[in-house]
Amino acid sequence: MARNSVKYWERISSVYAGYLKKNKKCYNELCKEIKENLEPGMLVLELSCGSGMITKKLADSVLEWTATDPSPKNLQNARKLYRKNKGRGTNFRIESFGSIKYESSTFDAVVLPNALQVMEAPDKALKEICRVLRPGGMIIAPTFVFDRDYSIAQTIKMNVTGFKMKNKWTSDELAEFVEKYGFIVETQHLIEGKPVDECLIVAKKKTARDSVKEGGKTVIGSLINLASKK
Length: 230
Description:
alpha/beta, single chain
């Protein structure tokens, strides 16, 4: 991974950590809702763990939590924060988004906190996430969204402080984007934050049964259309 890319994720991590500290209500609500979708026996992969704010809150809720980030510095900070919080142990490793170094169907859930909106290629990340998830596994992806209009002053402030978005979705657009890559969105919840709101997306990886159901609906829809034309 290029050095400038690593530096970029270190800067994003610093900005996001500050965002969570200033938005405690949003942070607590976010962690609460993520936890509600986790089970004790799960194997969970966290991508873009940054400074470890999500890791320290949730890692001990499951059987195994693997926190990853492109930056060694971010991982070092996340490990320190987690141990300071008396975490009982989790895995920390360097990992990129476009080529995840795990076998297919490894994890029960992937947590991706506020990274999709700043990625150059979010489509590649979603394809890799879908690959490493077991059938029926979940992606949990809180993402900054633009359901409301922001003033020019707010936009400038976001850019200056590091909240420069490469992908500006509304909640509905985000859900549609995620579903293009092998997922069914089950939860789409807007959480108010400053300076940007977040949409918590929880989506299930499609199973063979889901694909059969979709195929059946397509066939039925085609038959109805044919019948209506006669």
